[in-house]
Amino acid sequence: MIKGNHGAVIWLTGLSGAGKSTLAEKLVRHYKDQGRPVEHLDGDIMRGIFPTGFSRREREEHIRRIGFMASLLERNGIIVVASFISPYRASRMEVRRMCGRFIEVFVDASLEVCERRDTKGLYRRARKGEIKNFTGIDDPYEAPQDPEVTVNTEGASVEESFAHLLSQLGPLIN
Amino acid sequence: MIKGNHGAVIWLTGLSGAGKSTLAEKLVRHYKDQGRPVEHLDGDIMRGIFPTGFSRREREEHIRRIGFMASLLERNGIIVVASFISPYRASRMEVRRMCGRFIEVFVDASLEVCERRDTKGLYRRARKGEIKNFTGIDDPYEAPQDPEVTVNTEGASVEESFAHLLSQLGPLIN
Predict the structure, then answer these.
(1) Which residue ranges form the domains of chain B, and what is each CATH number?
(2) Catalytic residues of A
(3) What is the distance between the alpha carbons of residues A122 and A132, in angstroms, rounded to a whole number?
(4) Do B76 and A73 touch (CB under 8 A)?
(5) Of B103, B100, B122, whose CA–CA distance to B111 is shortest?
(6) Alpha helix stretches (DSSP H) within B5-101
(7) B21-41, pLDDT tens digit by residue?
């Protein structure tokens, strides 16, 4: 454990396009600027390194591996910022149990808004049937029931959402 | 990075029964006693958490994941002691490339000696054909060609092998 610092797993969950990666990147930058040890585990990047499918079982296995990785980093005093759709409540609960300090952040934006943004053009492709098992379209998203933090990104700018996230994390991350 | 400490990945490779886990556990204890941040990633334990097969492709994927995990820990100043048969040279090379300071330790004992020890009874089962793709029996083991450290455990006690390992690691781990 690094002196004076405690690790934590800050787990951002939400639909594709809700703003998870954007907020996660700003959070990582924030902790780096403070000189804190921090690692970003991001869904798109991890799928690039470790290709896997989108069935329930494959998603669960994938999140379990990420969760284990996060827990190893955390217990060594590192702040882990994880941004994953992670649509299943049971999966997120499993990761929570692996970790010491687990902070679930629900990056909340409605399907309508995410689909309208469609930053990566994935919703359009999913609607056309070119992508299967797409969360929100033909695959479920189980929203957190009692997350430590909720950030609604619908009506807010990135700066506003980030300020809200930081203020909510403040009392949780020392 | 933890002040004054550098991370490292100490990667023990060798046949089943060569003594990897035993040496790895002693090494982890040693660094813990020194107050160094250390994590042990062990083949049997990791397969317990993340079941996978024994085909070349599955072994490679598994080692790649472990290597990535090790590299994240290492770059945060943690000493990672990894004990995996990891039979393929290309696979170990891939992990080496991911890491900053990678120390390959060849835990060397001949197939004959390992089979005679047969601490887990696995060689007997592999000879009977009850286990397939068993390294050394019906699956290859590609010994390191230029490892940083070689520990021959054939004629030596655990204490002797460990003392040799420590003395070899000394100049490499500050």
Answers:
(1) 8-169 (3.40.50.300)
(2) 86
(3) 11
(4) yes
(5) B122
(6) 20-33, 43-49, 56-74, 89-98
(7) 999 999 999 999 999 999 999
| Residues of B in Cβ contact (< 8 Å) with A37 | 1, 76-77
A-chain residues near B39 (CB < 8 A): 72, 76
Nearest 5°: the CA angle B55, B57, B59 is 65
Among B17, B25, B24, B5, which Cα is nearest to B134's?
B17
Share above pLDDT 90 across residues of chain B, in percent, rounded to a whole number: 88
How far apart, in whole angstroms, are the C-alpha atoms of residue A77 and residue A6? 5
Q: Are A86 and A63 in contact (CB under 8 A)?
A: yes
Q: Cβ distance B162 to B26 under 8 Å?
A: yes
Quote the radius of gyration of chain B (alpha carbons, Å). Answer: 16
Tens of pLDDT, residue by residue over B84-130, are 999 999 999 999 999 999 999 999 999 999 999 999 999 999 999 99
